[in-house]
Amino acid sequence: MSRLSKMSFSTIMLWAGMFFLYAPMLILVIYSFNESKLVTVWGGFSPKWYGELFRDQQILDAVWTSLKVAFFASTMAVVLGTMAAFVMTRFKRSWGKLTLSNMITAPLVMPEVITGLSLLLLFIHMADFLGWPKERGMLTVWIAHSTFCASYVAVVVSARLRELDLSIEEAAQDLGATPLKTFFHITVPMISPSLAAGWLLSFSLSLDDLVIASFTSGPGATTLPMVVFSSVRMGVSPKINALATLIILTVSLIAFICWYLARRSERKNLPPAM
Amino acid sequence: MKRPLKFRLPKGQYWTIGLPYFWLLLFFALPFAIVLKISLSTAAISIPPYESLMTYADESIQIMLNLGNYLLIFDDSLYVQAYLGSLKMAFITTLGCLLIGYPMAYAIARAPKKHQGLLILLVMLPSWTSFLIRVYAWMGLLSNNGVINNFLMWLGVISEPIQMLNTNFAVYIGIIYTYLPFMILPLYATLSQLDGSLLEAASDLGSRSLNTFWKVTLPLSKGGVIAGSMLVFIPVVGEFVIPELLGGPDSLMIGKVLWQEFFNNRDWPVASALAIIMLGLLIIPITLFHRYQAKSMESDL
């Protein structure tokens, strides 16, 4: 009995919190089907803003730019983050290792304005001294996103690497596999779920980033959050409601598919392990 | 970890450590040195809009360090207020996230094991959809002819709309809303690893549930509380987007001021000095977070 009364407060808070998290998004989705141009006045059901959205070339271009940047940035972030995680978990404690792990976790909390400002100033200096990059655009946004996403990948992957049974890797090496071969044939398959998780996390972080992209991009590369931000600053627009709904639906769908696959593979693996 | 891997990666080792090291040195550490350098230079009407620190004339190298930007910032009450405003905003929203997030994390950690994954997914899901869009959702809710005001007027609680959008209240709501998942995740991580037998022992010894919570659960979850608080506090100090969209003219935050100095006034040295001082203020929380991070990595071994 005491358990029930103790739980009730936190359980109520859980559901109240969930309501707090989801109600605004739900209302946004409902209003995306609003006929009226005034976002807050209900003028009847209509999908017309979706049509408007797909005719807006500026938004479509920005979506494409964002997807490209996010794809390449998350791929690079997985490479960098995995290497850093490997160093952090498998190498001897040393001065170099400590510096690396400090540098890789710092972007997790660093205020975005500071990261963005410092990267922009770096690119300007590099252009002065090296003549590269000539102008800021997709490449510089890619570098910036790869850097901060690598932190998240490193955290996710190192958690998994720490759980792994080292003896399998050692057995492979005792049997004559080179370290590189061991890594790709033994370690990578075992950590592949966390690599996928790190990639997806980086992808969504990169798609979502406004501040760092605003600092590091040039005239040629406008990402979706930058377009949304400038149009939202002008005032609320029903087209953005439609866009928001599509984003929410896509992300929820991907998240639930991932969750379902993870749960299924867990179930498959559980019985023999028990 | 016990075996120093001497036989492993004889040459590859340098690559494995070298590439991420070089990348982070170049794209993370070096930029801060540059910000520091520019913060010590003088603004000028040129491209780039500041003067070089070093001048070479008459066979002598002169290095001019200009502390004027820092003095200006400490002299001008606007900047000082912006820093104080940011710290206050970060403190209150961190407390708010903690008060809402702790019970939620606790409830998830106590839920049946098979539901925990789904519940955590539900908490994290909003933070994977666009951050900007979640702030935008609140613009529609809080505006004068928005959903909340219309609803309250329909109920008859109020006769004319309350001004909510473009106030500090809206900024508080927006920040707590967007940062709540970052508080819940580390709290859940520590609470779910809590040894249940300790709680049982406490109740066997006659401790009442509230007492057990204060004396056992809360102290044991201290690491999660610190990590979650730092994950909210530090980025909020530099927050720019939320006060820009939801706040009014009186919601002065340092991230917003920095942005305006850089993009609108094009005063790069002052913007850099603002960033350096912000980092200085954040040194203690950042160190706290790193210590927790290092400790949780050690304890996993």
In short:
Chain A has 274 residues and is an all-alpha fold. Chain A has helices at 2-31, 48-55, 57-90, 95-109, 112-130, 138-163, 166-174, 179-208, 211-216, 224-234, 238-273. The longest helix of chain A has 36 residues, at 238-273.
Structural descriptors:
heterodimer; A: 274 residues; mainly alpha; MetI-like fold; 11 helices; B: 301 residues; 2 strands; transport (chain A)
What does this structure look like?
Chain A: Belongs to the binding-protein-dependent transport system permease family. CysTW subfamily. Chain A: Keywords: Cell membrane, Membrane, Transmembrane, Transmembrane helix, Transport. Chain A: Pfam families: BPD_transp_1. Chain A: It is a multi-pass membrane protein. The complex is a heterodimer of chains A (274) and B (301). Chain A is an all-alpha fold and 274 residues long. Chain A folds into two domains: 7-55, no CATH class; 56-236, MetI-like (MetI-like fold), CATH 1.10.3720. Chain A is built from eleven helices and no strands. With 301 residues, chain B is mainly α. A two-stranded antiparallel sheet of chain B has the order 1-2. Chain B has a single domain (68-300), classed as MetI-like fold. In chain B, strand 1 (54-57) and strand 2 (60-63) form a beta hairpin.
